Each structure stands twice: as C-alpha cells, then as structure tokens.
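FIELD: query
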Amino acid sequence: MPLPKLTKLELQIMDALWSRGPCSVREIQESFPARKRPAYTTVQTTVYRLESKKALRRVKKIATALIFEAAMSREEAQGRLIDDLLALFGGRSRPIMAHLIESGNLSLDEVRDAERTLLRLAEEDRQE
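FIELD: result
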C-alpha cells in the first residue's frame, strides 16, 4: 500500500505522536506552541483524516477520550516527502544536492557518509 501524502498540519500532528507516543486529540493539540495552536476541532478533524489515510490508528479509549498512535514511522514519512521532492525535479537529485551544498545545509561529513552508503549499496548489488 502506498504511503499517504501528508499536509503540513498532518505532519505536525504526526510529529507529536512520534515524539510523545500514543496521545489523545487534546494532548496533540496542547503539543502545539500556545501562539500557533490550532483549534481543538481542527486537530480532531485532521486526526480523523489521518486515521482514514491509515497514517495513525486508535489504540484505546479512556472514558470519552480516544487514544491514537502513529501507524507509519517518521522515516517512512520522510521518505515519501523526499520521493515527492525528487519527482518535482524529474527524479534528478543533482539540483537538490547542489542547493544543499551551496546553502551550507550539507556538510562534508554528511557527503562522506552518503558516499559510504552508496559504496555499501553498490557492493551489495555486486554480491547478488
């Protein structure tokens, strides 16, 4: 099953679940900074939308509060975002890498780490 595409608010809600573990809608809403906190009903509607997308699931009910947990990992969501970004560039990663380097957001250590990963994957391909 393909991973769902998530909006900015949906990602913020998922981040609360990834960071805190299982939460109620109220706990999710209260995880937002007070000045930028969305309304309870906005969070509730978005949580139900995420549930229909199978990004999170209900795990239990305490009195009237439903408790939700993430059904997809942070890494899966990040992978989906990166795939979408690459699709904007026709699958080419070079413009993205060039921007990251020129903007100072990619360090030499990160480049070396990526190179080690590429070499390891190439070696695994040769062994198959």
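FIELD: remark
The radius of gyration is 19 Å.
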